[in-house]
Write a structure and sequence with these properties.
This protein is an alpha+beta fold and 762 residues long. It is built from eleven helices and 48 strands. Strands 16, 17, 18, 19 and 20 form a five-stranded antiparallel β-sheet that branches. Strands 1-29-28-27 form a four-stranded antiparallel β-sheet, with no helix packed on it. Helix 4 packs antiparallel against helix 5. The longest helix is centred in the C-terminal third of the chain and has 21 residues. The radius of gyration is 30 Å and the shape is globular.
């Protein structure tokens, strides 16, 4: 497997227990290749050493076998790794516990789950800290859960796949950017000593519509071995097939000659506007490779911006290090966070997933995603879908072998429902990774070495057939279907989509396996009602149905959308509570991607509507006694969050002045009202100047202007401890009117502005 993160993030292993007083020349030569990470050359040398002299020292033989098995493991040659580890386990008793783990993993990657289960059990017995031994032993007792949704998928190998490794696709402007070791230039290319394959570059295919291969769906085969301890029930499992090798390769172009270098460039991600890229690259500086103190070329993340079709301003992210690797970036759908992979100190396993805040080009401090996501193994290749949920690959969570793709629904950055294996046929006994998809997981792409293993990664497309569920809404008294009723879909307790019933009172959705649903039907003049539905048990019916009956009522329906004040976008993951202040009853819901909520209110009672989310100011709205004639109340809620920056658009200053003008006072009164509504909020008043005058003068002038705004708020009763004043001078010009540019007075005045940034809320 020639993918960049596996090659360079996971390189360390200790062989301290193998002490030999003297080594033969052949073994020394093999060890030299091993120490240089030249695993292909090491394999040849160790095999030659083991064949050459059958009477060699037992300790030397054990050392050679141990390092040979590890070399095959790094080359992803699982069959030879299994052979060598079997010889070690059979012939030696003083083995490190990791040998049993590696043997179990090789067996699983070769589809030998019963034998793998036994080795995992022995691994668990020999040490107690790593829970993989126990988890996999139990998991492999019944494999059926990995195949529950397999019949819904159709796979096809892409025509862009070459004879070299192709992997980690990412959506970009209607096409795919991906990583490849191909060489289409015809010029001899440098090779990577690890496995003698070319270095990796980024390539681009401009149209995903051309990438589905007609009649090239990956076939399925029946295997009774898929179920251990579950009887002889046959399961459908994807074979290791790919497209016809004689099929012509669809042309892919080099993505960027600026970003690609003579070293590895790898997995990448783009901001929503696709004008900023963050990508993985070897540690290089001015064309020269850098190394850590242990002599390893680590991975780093670099960013670049698109200017007129060219990628420019390439720079490192601030949390890179020469001593550990960071790679595999994945932006959140709103660009507020970047997920990535690292082997930095303090993690749970070999490589862990981390997240870092990202705001207008500024990076926060990386945070480990925690033990719900990360294991003693390796987590890598993150991707975040349009709903903000996380996909990643792991060999630490229970799976079919090698790297499997997993899914985690995130709430405030926490996998609150745990981690779910995506299952076959996306996952196989080989390595499956680099998964990207739409918000419903109906279509997408992923990488796998299921065809031949070793360094043969290919990219596959998938399409998932719909398991249709009809939601039928009726009038409880007349039995008539209700048209234009809203049906709110809740999945695992959180709001998701909103559907509208047709003339037959029907709304349709595609349900997912292993999911608990609730459907709430909402219609003016009716009391809200709901029904629960679960796919934890499977049904053979191609189309399923549930019914919801609504009763006429005098209750009032309150509905709305929670948005963030800074950009007026719907806010997901907000806890919205409607409290009846008369009988103290409460209704609560967690908003989904559309930020929507719906509740019933009884007439004659006062209510309080509350919206809460971590790092946001709590929003409360009071309703006095609702009248019977009020059938529906629409009330959207806005949230102020820590770090949000708001421009006070009407606060301008006369040239070289810093007193508050009358028009500015009105805008500051708006800030005053916000501070009164949220008495625990703390803000920074940020003032800016135009580019005229010197930098020193402008800094001093902007500081005076910020202080003038602060003094105005204090004079209106705001505690000065809640306010910070800071001047930025001409460092953040908004319209290009920098030194030397001829601009009008109106243009310059746009830069003489004040903003406020939220520092803290409660």
């Amino acid at each position: 497997m020639n993918r960049i993160i596996r090659v360079l993030l996971i390189v360390g292993i200790s062989f301290g227990s193998l002490t030999v007083q003297a080594q033969s020349a052949r073994l020394r030569a093999a060890n030299k290749q091993f120490d240089n990470l030249s695993y292909l050359s090491a394999v040849r040398a160790y095999e030659e050493f083991l064949r050459a002299d059958k009477k060699k020292d037992a300790a030397e033989t054990q050392e050679a076998l141990t390092k040979l098995g590890y070399s095959y493991r790094k080359l992803q040659d699982t069959r030879n790794a299994e052979r060598i580890y079997a010889e070690l386990v059979k012939g030696y008793t003083d083995l490190d516990s990791e040998i049993y783990l590696y043997y179990a993993q090789a067996l699983a990657q070769n589809g030998k789950y019963r034998e793998s289960q036994k080795m995992y059990s022995q691994y668990g017995e020999k040490q107690g800290q790593d829970l993989r031994g126990r988890r996999y032993t139990v998991s492999y007792m019944d494999m059926s859960r990995f195949y529950q949704d397999s019949s819904s998928y159709r796979l096809s190998s892409l025509p862009i796949n070459s004879r070299q490794a192709d992997f980690s696709p990412m959506y970009y402007k209607g096409g795919l950017v991906f990583v490849s070791a191909r060489d289409e230039s015809g010029v001899v290319k440098r090779v990577f000593s690890w496995n003698q394959t070319p270095f990796l570059d980024m390539y681009f295919h401009s149209d995903t519509n051309q990438l589905h291969v007609p009649n090239a769906d990956v076939k399925t085969r029946s295997t009774s071995a898929a179920v251990l301890g579950g009887g002889a029930e046959a399961k459908e499992m994807a074979t290791n097939e790919a497209a016809d090798p004689n099929q012509p390769l669809t042309k892919a172009e080099i993505f960027s000659r600026t970003l690609n270098t003579k070293y590895h460039e790898g997995p990448m991600t783009f901001t929503r506007d696709q004008n900023t890229i963050v990508f993985t690259r070897n540690n290089t500086s001015k064309g020269k490779a850098g190394k850590s103190s242990d002599g390893i070329k680590k991975l780093k993340l670099y960013s670049s911006v698109n200017n007129g079709g060219k990628w420019v301003d390439i720079k490192e992210v601030p949390f890179n290090s020469n001593e550990y690797s960071v790679g595999h970036p994945a932006f959140a759908p709103d660009d507020s966070k970047l997920y990535f992979v690292s082997d930095m100190p303090g993690g749970y396993g070999g490589t862990d997933l981390y997240v870092v805040e990202y705001n207008n080009g500024q990076w926060g401090t990386p945070v480990n995603l925690g033990k719900e996501i990360n294991t003693e193994g390796n987590e890598m290749f993150p991707f975040v879908d349009a709903n903000g949920n996380l996909y990643f690959s792991s060999d630490g969570h229970e799976g079919l072998g090698g790297l499997d793709v997993f899914f985690a629904e995130l709430r405030d950055g926490i996998a609150y429902k745990g981690v779910q294996n995506v299952g076959a046929p996306v996952n196989s006994e080989k390595d499956d990774f680099g998964f990207i998809t739409d918000k419903y997981r109906t279509t997408g792409y992923f990488s796998s070495n299921r065809k031949k293993g070793v360094s043969d990664d290919d990219i596959y497309a998938f399409r998932r057939a719909c398991k249709q569920l009809n939601i039928l809404v009726f009038d409880s008294k007349t039995g008539s279907p209700i048209e234009s009723a809203d049906v709110r879909i809740l999945r695992n307790g959180s709001n998701q989509d909103l559907r509208i019933t047709n003339v037959d009172g029907r709304a349709e959705i595609c349900v997912e396996a292993n999911t608990d649903y609730e459907f709430r039907a909402v219609k003016e003049g009716y009391a809200l009602n709901s029904v629960r539905f679960s796919t934890l048990t499977q049904s053979a019916k191609p189309v399923l149905s549930v019914s919801i009956y609504l009763e006429r009522t005098e209750s009032t329906l309150v509905r709305g959308v929670v948005k963030t004040e800074v950009n007026q976008q719907p806010a997901a993951g907000v806890k919205v509570t409607l409290r009846n202040e008369k009988d103290k009853s409460e209704q609560t819901v967690m908003t989904g991607p559309d930020g929507g909520y719906e509740f019933n209110m009884k007439p004659g009672a006062p209510y309080t509507l509350t919206a809460q989310k971590d790092r946001y100011a709590t929003k409360r709205t009071q309703y006095n006694k609702v009248k019977k004639k009020d059938k529906i109340v629409t009330d959207s809620l806005g949230l102020y969050g820590v770090g949000d920056v708001f421009q006070l658009k009407n606060i301008y200053y006369d040239l070289n002045k810093f007193f508050i003008r009358a028009d500015a006072a009105k805008e500051l009164d708006h800030v005053l009202e916000i501070l009164k509504e949220y008495p625990q909020m703390q803000i920074e008043l940020r003032s800016h100047t135009d580019s005229r005058a010197t930098d020193t003068y402008n800094i001093r002038l902007s500081e005076n202007r910020a202080r003038a705004a602060l003094d105005y708020l204090v004079s209106r009763g705001v505690n000065a401890k809640r306010l910070v004043a800071r001047g930025y001078g001409e460092s953040e010009i908004v319209n290009g009117c920098i030194d030397g540019v001829n601009c009008s007075e109106d243009d310059h005045q746009q830069n003489r502005r004040t903003e406020f940034k939220i520092l803290a809320v409660q």
